[in-house]
Structure formats: C-alpha cells, structure tokens
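User: Can you fold this complex?
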Amino acid sequence: MHETNVAQDMRDRALVRGHLAGDSSAAAELVGHYEARLFNVALRMLGNVEDAEDVTQTVFGNAFLALESYDPQYRFFSWIYRMTVNESLNAIDRRRQMVTLDDELAIPVTESGSSGALEADDRVGKALMLLTPNDRAIVVLRHLAECSYDEIASMLNVPSKTVKSRLFTARERLRQVLLSQR
Amino acid sequence: MSNLSPLTPEQRDLIHRSVDGAVTQAEQAELRVLLAQHEEAQALHADLVLLMEEFRAVTKRVPPPGLRAAILRTISHPIPAPREEAHSFDVATPFRWFVRSCSSIIHDLEERMAKKTLFIGTFAVAAMAIIGYAVGGSPPRGLTFGTIGAGDSISGVERASRYKGRSMDEGDVSLKNPEVQALFQNDKILKLVQSDAFRVAMQSDAFRKLQSNDAFRKVMNNDDFQALMANDAFMRMMATDASAQMMSDAGFQSLMAQQPFRTAANAESLQAFMASDAYRQLKANAAFSDVMNSDAFRKLMANDAFRKVLSNEMFASVMSNEAFRMAFSNDAFRMALANDAFRSVMANDAFRSLMASDAFRMASRSEATAEVFRGAAMRMVAH
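Assistant: Here's the predicted assembly.
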C-alpha cells in the first residue's frame, strides 16, 4: 500500500512538472486520475450531483491556476483532496446563505440545497447528511476515499488524534442513525 | 460473566481502531478479552463491523458525462466564474425545481417539446443581447476566483487568498484580437447593428430592463450558455426560417407571457399551461410544427451543450423573470428578432467564432475591457 502511494506521488509530481513545462497531455492525465475520486468526495459531502459537479470543476480550475505555487514536497493527492473538502464546505456555507431571488417563487431549501431531494440514494449517503459537515468530511475521507488517519490529518491540518476522536464520534452517531432505520 | 460497567473512552477507542485495522497484536489480544466479557463492547463492535460493511457496499458514482471535458476547458481557458456572486444569486432555481416537481407528469413528448421550445425563444433574446452588449453596454464583472479555504470550518485549513486569480485588464482583450476584428469587419453584423429594428429594440425600456437584470447578466456570463452559443447545431437551428417564424409568432409570444409558464412553480401550473388556449394555438401553428420536426431541432435536443444549459439554474431563473417576459412581450424586440439581419447574424461564421472566443468571454465579463470594445463598436457603427 505504501509503495502504491509512493508510486502515485511520483506519478503526480511528474505530471505536475510536465504540465508546467508545457506537456499538453499531462493535465488531462492528472484530471483522469482524480476526476472520479474528487467527484465522489464532493458528492458524499453535498449529497447532490449538480453541486458535486460544480465543486469538482471549480477545484480543478483552482488547482491548475495555483499549480505553480504547489510545493512538491507535499503530496498532490492531499493538496487536491483538501481543496475538494474545502470547496465542498464553501458550497455548504453558500447554501445556508441563499436568499430568494423572486418573491413569487417560494422554493423550499433543504439541507441538500436548492435542488431539493437528496441524491445520495443509499442509506449511508443519507445518514452522512445528518452529520455536521466537518465530521462528514472526516468520515468521507476515511471510508469512501479510503484515506488513513494520518493522511486525513495532513489534508485537514489537524492532529491525527483529533481525526480519530472526531471519526469515532461521527461513527457512533451514524451507528445510531442506521440502527434506528433497521 | 458479563461486565455491566460502561465502556471507558479507551475501550471505545480500541474497538474503533480495531475495525479500522489499526491495532497492534497486543491490542488485539486485549480486544478479544474485552469482547468476551463485555456486552456493550460486543454490541458496539458488531454494529461497527456492520457499519464498515455498509461503507464498503457504497458504490462509487461515475461522474456525469461531459464533466471531464468541462474541466479540461476550464483548465485550458481559466476564466474564473464569479463564484461568490453566482452563489448568492443561485437561489430560487425555478427550472431545476420545476423539472423535478413536474417530473411525474412529464411523460409525453408533447410536454417535453413545449418546454424545450420555450428555451429557443430565450436563446434568441440572449443572442440578441450579446450583440447589444457589444454596442450598448456590458455587465460589470469582477474576475477573481471564489475562495478555496473553508473559513473557520476546519481549523488550520489554508485560506483561499493564496489561490486568487489575477484580475483581467485591457491587456487581456483588445480590438487586435482576430475574432473581435472579424466581428466589426463583418457587413452582416454592421447591417444588423445599423438596422432600425435593432436600434429601436436596443433603445426600448424593456430591453434596457432586461440588460440591467442580474439574472439575465449572469446567464450571459455563464460558461454553459456561452458554449451553447458557440454550438453549430444550435446556431444552425436558430438561423432557420422556421425558428424565426415561430419566435415572431403571436401564439408563441402569448405562450411566453403565460403565467403558468412564467412561474413554472408546480405541476398544477404546468397542467394549466397545457390546457391553455395559447398552447393549443401554438400546437396548431405550422412554424412550430416545422421546428419540432426539423432535423436541426432533433440534433439540438441531442446536444450536450444544449442539455447542460437546460439544467442550468441561472438560465432557468431568467426564464421566470419579469424583465425577460417584458422584453419578449415588447413589439420592438419581437420585430428585431424577426429581422432578416438578426437571423443572418445568427448564422454568421464570424459571430459564431466570436461567441466561442476567449476575447469575447473576457469582454463580456470585464467592465474595463467592455468599455474598449463598446467604444470601438460605436465608432464603427457611426461610420
């Protein structure tokens, strides 16, 4: 597993260097490696396909604009996952600040945003939406993106101990939610 | 002998780490003893094992088709959307909500065709407004990216300021740009701009209101919309006689002004629309039928860019907007839409090239560059 991560990091660094050096295929390859993964993280954070699509596109746009400032001593994987989590949290914040455009149209606003019903149609997806966004981020990174405690700690810039504590608390909450549905 | 005392935090931690596979051999032995003696530990462990199975059963979603292409476009043309502003606006989402709330009754082709047809008219207005911007005004635009940092959501997470994009200035777009040059050197576009119908429409209150309408301006700056405007299938369809006839048709105009369509608020309103005289008249209209049956229309319906715009919330909000309805109900505006010059511009290669150009996208998003663009346009029109 560790070797796989090392290989992944080496590949990512090579692609970043290639892109910055003008290799036109490097960007497409990086996007190919991360598109589905980032989309799924955003989807589980937001519970909504359209919002997840927006976040994924924004993250790549921002990442490539900031690529020159990317420090290769850090993992590209961690860097872009962190952006995805943060952009998802931003999207959640924006939903909370939504105002009605037209008084004639009283659109119901749900936790999943203006589009209405949750789109994560599985039990876990729905239960995740009951967690706080920060706890949801940790659960998503651990169980759906399969990141280790240390990787999550690095992405979120918090101690590994904090990751564990919040993960365990969130899981017990999920346990209660899922138990009540059985 | 079962232990009835509550689990300690350390014991809970041990159980959690065990399901994550993060325990040493000594801790595994400790866990076995705990599970053998403690009912609550057994229950927690069993529940967490089930929870892990549920997580493992979660399927990874395949990203929507077109996302990768959209990402690659964003990367190759990094013109940032005004994210904060867009989302402060991204509110009523009438269209998406409308489609979902009405989905149970949108089963037959007749309804779908009617709904899509509405957009054709909308695009015509928008296309006209794009030209209008070039000679009459432009929406103010800031060009900094939205934030990446999550505020205080997670302590220690980096803030967004380091990722901010630079602002565009006049240096980014100039009249030397070939697409802009082509626009102003094109006799069809000049003919349109100089036509009485176009001038009257541009000077109308209805058009001015539409231009100053936030929702409309946001659609004009929307990448999906601009991609559609650059789409050959759409432009070809817009250029057909049948489209022009339909858009200038009184029945179609009446349809556009129908309250049920305008509010598009619920299934009942859609049903009311379907039963309306305006819709019946439209169905009987030959131009409407021609468009519906045309190859160009069918190609457009299958087009990704078109479908993407259909699902765009900002675009939908324009559709339900009073200013848009007023513009479309305006005689001068309708005359301009029916104008041959307008139709020829819609089919014009230079115009299509301009729509797809970075220069135009920049011009339409920056007040400073639009000023340069507008001034030159006015001088050329005056000659």
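The two ends of chain A are 35 Å apart (CA to CA). Residues 24-46 of chain A form the longest helix (23 residues).
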